[in-house]
Amino acid sequence: MNSFLRQAIACMVKHEHKWNDALTVIEVTDKGMRRATNQDSSVVVLQGEEDAYQQRGHLFVVCDGMGAHAAGELASGDAVDHIPHHYLVYQSLSPPEALKKAIIKANEEIHRKGQENLDFHNMGTTCSSILLIPQGIICGHVGDSRVYRQRGNVIEQLTFDHSLQWELKAKGGDIENVPSNVITRSLGPNAEVEVDLEGPFPVKAGDCYLICSDGLSGEVTDSEIGAAMATLPPEQAAQFLLDLANLRGGPDNITIIIVQFKGPDFVTDVEGVEQIVIGKQTTPKKPLNPILLVASISLSLAGLLLLSINPIVGIAMAATGIVTGLVGFMLGRTGVESGETLERDYRFGSGPYTKNNCVPDATILQGLGQTANEIRQLAQEHPDKFNWAPFDEAFVESTEQMQGGQFVEAFRNIARAITFIMNEFRRG
Length: 428
Known about the structure:
Blueprint: E1 11-14, E2 23-30, E3 40-45, H1 50-56, E4 58-66, H2 71-89, H3 95-116, E5 124-125, E6 127-133, E7 136-142, E8 146-151, E9 154-157, H4 164-170, E10 196-201, E11 208-212, H5 214-217, H6 222-231, H7 234-247, E12 254-261, E13 277-282, H8 290-306, H9 311-334, E14 337-341, E15 354-357, H10 362-376, H11 378-381, H12 389-403, H13 407-427
Antiparallel strand pairs: 1-2, 2-12, 3-4, 4-5, 4-6, 6-7, 7-10, 8-9, 8-11, 9-15, 11-12, 13-14
């Protein structure tokens, strides 16, 4: 039986939270068509209160593990456990600094486990994350999982693939015979890792962000991903993209997080938002200032001497001396905060790295049509096993709409056809 028909049911979550009217979050993962296990992991951390969001933001992470003996699954699972934990622990650091340090700390933990157990030696995982804070979107990234932003008619890749192909291309090298799946950076294999930060990217109403493992990006083009994000509700877009990757072979695990912004609640107030301060430090605790010390002692002694002559004045003077000493002590203990305040237009990294039109057009629809035709050939092998009528109806309608130049409607119909028949395959 064709491998399409052995597809396992994917795991999809639509996160419910207090910001449902402003923020839609979809998380889906699937082992693909050719893998026995799923070595991808993901996590969504939504703050419960407005104050907590203002301080630390919302965090979304996708990790793609690698290694034998379930080592990849362990590595990616450890990453999505450690990164949110350490990020929230580093309260004294700015959000981008805390995210970077949390990813570095996760690398140390994964590397340590790999060194302690030969079965886990050299295990590793990619890590792509977005941190939503009032200043916008910060990306923390290692490996070849990706972060995309769809805004209007354009989809952009905000992260740089740490792959041999991308590294050579950036240096002007020949990549014709270079495999796309050789990565140059990951969490775990080495004691130290370089973490890329990108952003902050200001959020606008209607923006849609997608984080994915290469099980999606390896089989589905950027324009197809963007078209799904632009024309379908997030839940339908995630399901369609997952199904499309699987129908094209599904050679790897597939994990997707979609974050869509609705309305003004999370729109970045570029001019009014508090600026990010990095390298924040508090000067060491200092002894009491000598001048304040002398003043405190003098006032206190004078007050004591005056008690027998004028008790009211004496008590007032002694109290003033004590208060002066306490103020000086607290000033010395508190110290002075310092750090570098980033300009409002400051950006970590150099993203976006790619930019593509994602309006459904003839080219996008022809690619989807080819996939749909390949699916339809299965009807000859299993004519009575599945209900082909809804698929055929949507496919024919999509073809007619494409011929009439109704590309958006055609895209929605062919997406509906593909999702329907994949659901039939799962049930069968």
